[in-house]
Design goal:
With about 120 residues, the protein is mainly alpha-helical. Helix content is about 35%, strand content about 10%. A 3-stranded parallel β-sheet has the order 1-3-2, with helices on both faces. Helix 2 packs across helix 3 and helix 3 crosses helix 4.
Length: about 120
């Protein structure tokens, strides 16, 4: 089963072709970041889990489902590398589940086990 690793894009390239960098500045990056104020500019800063939850919710939306399907195909069977520390929630965990769970990818779980459309 593929795993999440920590490192930069050059580390993923050096590691193997079976590892994909999904961190900042990649096409798989999470647009929501811990410390950002969301979902509104007046809200309190998000923590890592909230940023991951928003990423998963985005992939469950009508436009995000197209991205989820593409991401799933591109990442299936590969290790994913991000800059997030391994002990904190990371969108790479969402991408790993999306790409490697059996089924058609309709269910997108977060660290809080939220589920998308059934």
């Amino acid at each position: 089963m593929p795993v999440r690793l920590r490192g930069a894009s050059r580390d993923a390239a050096d590691l193997s072709t079976a590892c994909v960098y999904v961190g900042p500045h990649s096409r798989f990056a999470n647009p929501f970041k811990a410390g950002d104020r969301a979902p509104s500019p007046l809200g309190p800063p998000m923590d890592a889990a909230e940023a991951v939850d928003l990423f998963a919710a985005m992939l469950r939306g009508p436009v995000g489902r197209c991205y989820a399907a593409r991401f799933s195909q591109a990442l299936r069977g590969r290790d994913l590398m991000c800059t997030c520390p391994l002990g904190v929630p990371c969108h790479a965990d969402v991408l790993l589940r999306l790409a490697n769970e059996s089924g058609d990818g309709d269910v997108i779980r977060t660290c809080n086990s939220l589920e998308g459309p059934q």
